[in-house]
Amino acid sequence: MANTIILTVIGSDRPGLVDDLSTMVNKHGGNWLESRMTRLSSNFAGIVRVSVPETNHEALERDIQSLGCANCQLIIEQEAKAGADEALRELSLEIIGPDHPGIVQDISHALAEKKIGINEISTDCQDGAMSSERIFSAEINIAIPTSIPVDSIRDQLEELANQLFVDITMDDLQGTVTRI
């Protein structure tokens, strides 16, 4: 029988960190199922979902705890068991506009009010190409219950885009892209 665990690693980046982690998983007969990893400034942040034989679970955890990473924080959790989910429709949002405090909070709040969770979010802020104005951008993947009409989300996002002075593009991943 296999256990599925979620590993979260945050700390100073160094070459070979992912190699060391994947070597430990492989050494204990584990299977690297999915991951999201990135370098932010000089820091490494990663989350990995791993399946490991039950008999090797504790040994893998011990080895991972010994991972050499300066100022490293490591969290190991058992995968939470999902309940019966309602049928979902995936949507992708792209947001671009002048940077100012509160954009992520406003968007996440609007989605939370509709009981929509964020599956994945990636944000960035850079100097504009034609001006010194900072430009905020985000890619957000959400999954909405099929019982929620896409039009109601589109209407709420349109109002939000106007309030925040940003452009929002929604892709239903079925060929329909809507600029809001």
Automatic annotation (TrEMBL):
Residue ranges constituting the ACT domain according to the UniProt record: 92-171
PROSITE patterns: ACT
Gene Ontology BP annotations: regulation of DNA-templated transcription
CDD domains: ACT_GcvR_2 (cd04869)
Entry's transmembrane regions: none
Pfam family of the protein (one): ACT_6
InterPro entries recorded: ACT-like_dom_sf (IPR045865), ACT_dom (IPR002912), GcvR (IPR016867), UPF0237/GcvR_regulator (IPR050990)
PANTHER family: UPF0237 PROTEIN MJ1558 (PTHR34875:SF6)
Name of protein: ACT domain-containing protein
Source organism per UniProt: Kiloniella litopenaei
